User: What shape does this take?
Amino acid sequence: MAHAQFHLAAADIISRADAGERVDDAVTFAAASPFGERSMEVVEALLSLRNQSKAAGTIGN
Assistant: This one.
């Protein structure tokens, strides 16, 4: 779900940029913006998956 929400937030930024709006603050990963928040959710989900795979022995270090 986080991945899909990330793409929706990214699409919103692209639409706003295409309309001529400045989006510099919205695309900063640390920003308190939907894009920044969704980006962190995706990163956290990927790290969790990596840790689960390590614990299960399905990937190396």
